[in-house]
Amino acid sequence: MIATKSLTLDSPIAIGSLELRNRLIMAPMQQYNGSPEGYATEHHIQHYARSANAVGLIIVESTAVSGNGRLVPNDIGIYSDRHVDALKRVTEAVHARHTPLFVQLSHGGRKSDPQVTKRLIAPSAIAYDEMFGKPAQLSVSDIETLIEDYRLAARRSIAAGFDGIEVHAAHGFLIHQFLSPLSNFRTDAYGGTLEGRSKFLQDTLAAIRSETGSQYPVIVRVSSTDYTDGGLNPHELAIMLKPLEAKGLLDGVDVSSGGLLPTPPTDVHPGYQLPDAAVIKQHLQIPVIAVGKIYTRSFADRILRDQLADAVAIGRPLLENPDFAQQMLSSPH
Question: What is the pTM of this model?
């Protein structure tokens, strides 16, 4: 792989039709400050606006497409038209800082919060753990209803003023449950082969595209590994994503890891997920975003120069210091 000396964190990048001023992205981080009904609050307006001065893109936290798929009782949602106005106040505050933002559409599946979930559902009737309990296996009719939830959420995302959508297919939530052979034992069109296990994601992306059109940026967040033998790995995931890219359903991939099982990574060091992002990047033409303790300018620039990823996302430092991105960008190369 030939290093690209001129490529740095300051270099602009296009995600679909959207040009970003630099390659530093604010990763989606749960705020636990939504109302009981799933509305964004003044906290979200302030939190995202104050971090918008330096980053090229903000990806808003997990936003539920169904009231039955919320991750926690105080997350935010986009599962009714009533959620749009509160989210629009967030997008307007960020746009006032001349920064684009994406919404992250999610459904918890078998990891939906028991306090707010009326019926726990999953591709197969396999529990995450004893606390969540055993979910009901989704029927094809159930799956069609869920895909419609994502379609309507995409319509509301545009109405709320978001500049793009990230589909949450990571961290053990619903779409990840379809993708992994450890949680998807189905024998119908939505299981079995790589093509079958990726069909729910493909159908969901197609439904979203039916609302957004081809020019509106749509990316996906994936978990590159399940940290267990027989689970997902980055090479297999890349093979699943490549047809989605070829069909024009995806404009980028945000690479995280884990979450399907109560099995944490054994070594969480700076850039620990980077090798997986690099593997996925070898198979795709669309931008690949790396995340995972990449907190120095020199490290981020080296990643971009060596073409291991196309952009870098940071999360936790921005929770502690909204000026962190500006400091990172202004530090020596």
Answer: 0.97
